[in-house]
Amino acid sequence: MSTLHPVIAEVTQRIIERSRPTRSAYLARIDEACGKGVYRHRLGCSNLAHAFAASGDDKVALRGTVTPNVGIVTSYNDMLSAHQPYEPYPEQIRQAARLVGAVAQVAGGVPAMCDGVTQGRAGMELSLFSREVIAMATAVALSHDTYDAVLMLGICDKIVPGLLTAALTFGHLPTIFVPAGPMTSGLSNDKKSKVRQAYAEGKATREELLEAESAAYHGAGTCTFYGTANSNQMLMEIMGLHLPGSSFVTPNTLLRDALTRAAVYRAVAITALGEEYTPIGHLVDERTIVNGVIGLNATGGSTNHLLHLVAVARAAGIILTLEDFDAISAVVPLLARVYPNGSADVNHFHQSGGMPFLIGSLLDAGLLHGDVRTVWGEGMAPYRRMPALDADGKLVWNEVVASSNLDVLRPAAEPFRADGGLRVLKGNLGLSVIKVSSVPDDHMVVEAPAVIFNDQEEMLAAFNRGELERDLVAVVRFQGPKAIGMPELHKLTPPLGLLQSRGFHVALVTDGRMSGASGKIPAAIHVTPEAIDAGPLGKLRDGDVIRLDAIAGTLEAKVDAAEWAARPQAVADLSAHHSGMGRELFAMMRNAVGGADTGVTVFGTTDRHHAADF
């Protein structure tokens, strides 16, 4: 392993210094819980009887205090393809636990929504807040205080960050995340994208589009493109919260089953009842969080994690800022090309060497903290190995020393690009982020008149009327968390892509989200402060010239300073977004949520404005 890159070392130390008061308070709190020892023995007899009343043959073990009890928090449901494979996991986990002298109970379930189903619909306005609901539901599950370790069953967009936020809140408990894997490859992402674009142009029917989508999303497992769900899996592995090499093994296979059993065995081994006690609150430290940011850049991961990682870090008393992302992105090269940053899917990535090769390459280049603690033990070296079954069906790990497909996965010495492609943009329009790993060089700077929309449907209607056939910066505002819950705006990608392909210079500016799926379109997203919160987007008017410069890192309205200062804020009637499909139940979250630069969280949020440079 090479000497750690000086920028990585500097950013990490800066985070440590910035977080010292909050991290110290957090560790003191979980150490107090750790010091109380095994937890089940503190229950009164009536309490304990309730806890094992339905546990059948496991009752005898649960009566005592020396048998480890593994709590299972599951996000299983039938609708979400990535989570459907979790249905048999609880029984598999119980059986595996008994083999090593332990027991396991489902502690609770959490909701798991699919952004692919709610995309462009009212339900999408609940999506980001579901992360907080999941964290609170997990806290309810673990509040029974009867568990020695926890297995988290979750994969997709808000589920993993919500589970991890709660796990860190219960930081005295050893916790392992157990994936279920991606679906096998179906219709290629390139072909699917072409049908989507043809449909947007009126050149494909709805039936043709549905057939393409069904061929792409065709079975159990995560969607195979590299969105937030698969970025979650990458993060859990590079942060040492998965078993080595386990993220992208497909569901319903013997290898997947063996890895699930191994996770159970390991969870039992790291409880306070053994000699390798590994509470997650100590495992996840500043270096672990930095490793997550490094992985996000090295793989071209989802921009949603510029929200999620900030919020997760804060749950562990660690203050991560967008400037940290920007500094790390400048020195971490892009090593993977997976759709939408390439034509391959995550199965191709895994087959090329996957996470073991990526982690090994980063370690060799001094671009990853290798001395962290993981659920597998000390250090990241074991994560250079890929799991497999030997001739006897035994689970083994083999070191991966080379990529088998340099079009998908490269070593740090031969990257696809020298940086990670994430940028922070600053200027008089606020603070925002942009993902440029797929943006063509001649579109990295766009200066054009603004066309203002207060709803994504307004923009789609204007496109369909042929009113956007020109250079422009589409501004879709009042999409932030306080306004309507910060939905993703993927429906805008096909029309913007068409305009760019027709030779126009276009960009998107929004206080909503795009998850990085803007692809080749320059998109300044997560603009904060948001328009409804006196943010600068509220001052924009149609025709104002906007300059988005992803090279210089600026986002500016080219408006006279005096005129800009005198302009009143625009207003929008958002009442239609605040009721129906359960949205009325989330008013308290819209009213309490913080800004994009502090993770869009309602936990511990007291300040309203965070982005000073506007």
UniProtKB/TrEMBL annotation:
- State its cofactor: [4Fe-4S] cluster
Q: Any idea of its EC number? A: 4.2.1.12
* MF term (GO), any: 4 iron, 4 sulfur cluster binding
Signal peptide span per the entry? none
Q: Does the keyword Ubl conjugation apply?
A: no
Instruction: Give start and end of each Dihydroxy-acid/6-phosphogluconate dehydratase C-terminal domain.
Output: 407-599
Under InterPro entries, the record lists: 6-phosphgluc_deHydtase, Dihydro-acid_dehy_C, DiOHA_6PGluconate_deHydtase_CS, ILV_EDD_C, ILV_EDD_N, IlvD/EDD_N
Cite the cofactor comment.
Answer: Binds 1 [4Fe-4S] cluster.
Q: Which reaction does it catalyse?
A: 6-phospho-D-gluconate = 2-dehydro-3-deoxy-6-phospho-D-gluconate + H2O
Annotated GO CC locations: cytosol
GO terms classed as biological process: D-gluconate metabolic process; Entner-Doudoroff pathway through 6-phosphogluconate
Functionally, this protein is described as follows:
Catalyzes the dehydration of 6-phospho-D-gluconate to 2-dehydro-3-deoxy-6-phospho-D-gluconate.
**What family does this belong to?**
Belongs to the IlvD/Edd family.
Name of the molecule in the record: Phosphogluconate dehydratase
Task: Identify the taxonomic lineage of the organism of origin.
Answer: Bacteria, Pseudomonadati, Pseudomonadota, Gammaproteobacteria, Lysobacterales
